[in-house]
Design goal:
96 residues, mainly alpha, Protein ISD11, Complex1_LYR_LYRM4
């Protein structure tokens, strides 16, 4: 039987997933993964079963690795900024 993860390790995993989700260059992907991470961790918040917590932690750790790789690929092939994203002002742009 696997030992249950500590509250601190779960919080570290949660913050790592949020940080990685914020690193997507695509607005839609970025906001989708932030929402998904928050809702996933909200569901397990009141869980006390050690085996379920250990399984949850292992699955999310694997998911974090996939999320990091996906964010790197998304940064490499990121497209144009959407209208809803904050645009740089004219004097801050580097394309002049």
């Amino acid at each position: 039987m696997a030992s249950p993860p500590t509250k601190q390790s779960l919080l570290h995993l949660y913050h790592s997933m949020l940080r990685t989700s914020q690193s997507f260059s695509s607005y839609n992907f970025r906001h989708y993964f932030v929402r998904r991470t928050k809702s996933t961790f909200r569901e397990i918040q009141s869980e006390t079963d050690p085996s379920k917590l250990a399984a949850f932690y292992d699955e999310r750790a694997k998911e974090l690795a996939v999320l990091k790789r996906s964010a790197i690929v998304n940064q490499l092939y990121g497209g144009w900024k959407l209208v809803v994203e904050k645009q740089k002002t004219e004097h801050e742009r580097s394309d002049n």
